[in-house]
Design goal:
By secondary structure, this protein is of the alpha/beta class. Helices cover about 50% and strands about 10% of the residues. It is built from 22 helices and twelve strands. Strands 2-1-3-4 form a four-stranded parallel β-sheet, with helices on both faces. It has a four-stranded parallel β-sheet with strand order 6-5-7-8. Helix 10 links the parallel strand 7 and strand 8. The radius of gyration is 26 Å and the shape is globular. It starts with 7 loop residues before the first strand and ends in a 10-residue tail after the last helix. The relative contact order is 0.08.
């Protein structure tokens, strides 16, 4: 190319984009304009790429993209065109970062979305526009100006902590997070849960987040930015906190999304604290004492217990609002217990008292309603704003909602290293640590489990090891992206425990959830013919009418089956715990195969 005095295009994309059936001959189209075409992995990169970047640089393919962009920034005769897949949230991460690298050095950036449409008319226009821009810049002698690329994040310092900076936190699950917020405050962290659960927050997210990013990313960033821009907080004494799971896709890139939004809005000075178990990021002013972690885990146990009890009795309450009032009363008692104020309960006695109180709440025991389990992506599953208040909708439509325990996600994340050590060459020490973490969590949950087992109305949760065993016939435990095998496991657990009606909810175009959620539904229905599963997508532009129609169709089938069962064997589904199916009994009977860490 240099010898011929030509210019070139680096056509960067996913490895499978090299397939002509997928790329629709875009490389040949570019070459037809007398431009040399290079793939990102063919470049003679002879320098050490600058790091760190704003995003989490976790995959080899992503690293090649970023290095290729940096290479292009150093040359006058190259431009970069990136191919992305339509609706891919992971591509939203890479495209933003590649754009930042090029833009920072004054280079052009062109993005082409690839889907099944083979007509290249729009692509041809984009390429011709790029060539025109290249020609104009050459005529005007506009040259690239490479600048340092390393991203320097703002750290949350000890001085900020001493100064009592307000730390904004998302309210992913109202019951759980409203218990944990006072716990953090009692340890000196001035945390404030955001209460902007409205459409304005979603619209703000669409403004500041790449719209190909998944719905949870848009909601969370939107809530943060809506709060920052609201004028309610002193932005010079403000920090944000967000969990970072060390996983793939947006699970580790929430925080980079938030930082990009802050940068674009002119609030780069606001630190974003990463709450993660893997040491991805550290902040000298944010270190959690071991006792705080234990108290927070207890808070999750209480939240699960209250959520389980509330959802079980509220559809049948005799006095409207009585279940919610009882839940709020015991939530305040849980907070008092965890923060040391008016603490007259032990952990065990508090779990027993909560279950006893809900066991004796006056309800109409003559009513029988279909029980509907809710599974899916973690934020959409637990945040009412994200799922259009699905629990309330189900109860209005005459059903009882069942939401799996939040703490099971912690156990699922902790379980991963055991599989990795056995099958993927992972460290045995990590597997041992995994078992110890699960043992700790289960020991904290044990009083709640025992109280639920002794109750007359409530079902008790089962071990993560049991859920794993129930999942194996349907999905490999190596599926650990996003909600991974836990999503399928929760569906199996619900069906096998007498809850065949399930709504599987996920963000639109979420690849992991489509594999581990929608992907196993057919196999589940084949094994459990009585199962009644509806998959519902959620995103900013989703039609609530379409969502409602799918849910109502599922409920119609559930009510029809329930009526048929009642004619055969009338019973009170609320007083009598749902009897496990033979499949559940078979799994739960294998006690010798399931490690007992409690």
């Amino acid at each position: 190319m240099e010898r011929a005095g030509k210019r070139g295009i680096v056509l960067a994309g996913r490895p499978y984009h090299i397939d002509p059936e997928i790329n629709h001959g875009i490389a040949e189209l570019i070459a037809s304009y007398d431009l040399a075409v290079f793939t990102e992995d063919s470049l003679p990169i002879d320098f050490e790429p600058e790091r760190p970047l704003r995003v989490v640089d976790q995959w080899v393919y992503h690293s090649r993209l970023y290095s290729a962009a940096e290479f292009v920034c150093k040359r006058n005769d190259l431009e970069l065109v990136q191919l992305v897949s339509f609706g891919c949230g992971i591509d939203a991460v890479t495209s933003d970062q590649v754009n930042e690298i090029l833009d920072n050095s004054g280079k052009l950036y062109t993005l082409l979305k690839i889907d099944e449409i083979a007509n290249l008319g729009a692509v041809r226009i984009r390429i011709r526009t790029l060539i025109s821009a290249m020609n104009l810049r050459q005529e005007q002698k506009i040259l690239p100006d490479p600048k340092p690329l390393a991203y320097r994040r703002v750290e949350y310092t000890k001085q900020m902590h001493k100064d009592g900076y307000t730390i904004l936190a998302p309210e992913m699950s109202p019951i759980h997070f409203n218990i944990m917020e006072p716990v953090f405050r009692s340890y000196g962290f001035n945390t404030v849960l955001m209460d902007n659960h409205n459409r304005a927050a979603i619209d703000t997210g669409l403004k500041y987040v790449n719209n190909d990013a998944c719905y949870p990313s848009i909601i969370v960033v939107g809530q943060f930015m809506d709060a920052v821009l609201s004028g309610k907080y002193d932005t010079d004494r403000l920090a944000l906190i967000m969990s970072q799971t060390c996983g793939c896709c947006r699970a580790s890139n929430y925080i980079p999304f938030i930082r990009r939004a802050l940068d674009n809005a002119g609030y780069s000075h606001i630190p974003v604290v990463s709450l993660n178990p893997g040491g991805l990021e550290k902040n000298e002013g944010f270190k959690l004492p071991a006792k705080l972690i234990i108290e927070a885990l207890k808070g999750v146990v209480y939240g699960d217990l209250l959520m389980r009890c509330l959802c079980r009795v509220r559809p049948y309450e005799k006095k409207p609002g009585s279940a919610n009032r009882l839940c709020e009363k015991w939530r305040e008692i849980c907070v008092d217990s965890l923060t040391g104020a008016k603490n007259k309960y032990t952990h065990k006695s508090l779990c027993e008292s909560i279950v006893w109180a809900f066991d004796h709440l006056p309800i109409d025991e003559t009513i029988v309603k279909p029980r509907v389990g809710i599974v899916g992506e973690i934020l959409v599953k637990y945040m009412p704003l994200a799922n259009n208040y699905l629990v309330d909708l189900l109860e209005r439509e005459g059903a009882e909602a069942i939401v799996p325990d939040f703490i099971d996600f912690f156990n699922y994340c902790a379980y991963g290293p055991q599989y990795q050590a056995e099958f993927l060459g992972g460290k045995k020490s990590s597997a041992i640590t995994s078992k110890l973490i699960i043992r700790l969590i289960e020991s904290l949950r044990k009083p709640a489990v025992e109280a639920l087992k002794a109750s007359k109305r409530f079902d008790a949760p089962i071990s993560i090891y049991q859920i794993a065993e129930m999942t194996k016939p349907f999905l490999s435990l190596g599926n650990q992206y996003g909600e991974g095998w836990l999503l399928a496991g929760e569906m199996v657990k619900l069906i096998a425990s007498g809850v065949p009606n399930i709504i599987c909810i996920q963000p639109f175009a979420c690849l992991p959830n489509n594999v581990v959620g929608k992907g196993v539904i057919k196999a589940l229905k084949k094994t459990y013919p009585e199962s009644n599963i509806a998959a519902v997508d959620y995103d900013p532009g989703a039609s609530e009418v379409n969502q409602l129609n799918r849910i109502k169709l599922m409920l119609a089938s559930a009510n029809s089956k329930l009526a048929a069962q009642e004619q055969e064997t009338p019973s009170n589904a609320l007083v009598d715990k749902a009897a496990p199916t033979p499949a559940t009994s078979a799994y739960l009977g294998k006690r010798s195969e399931i490690p007992d860490f409690v």
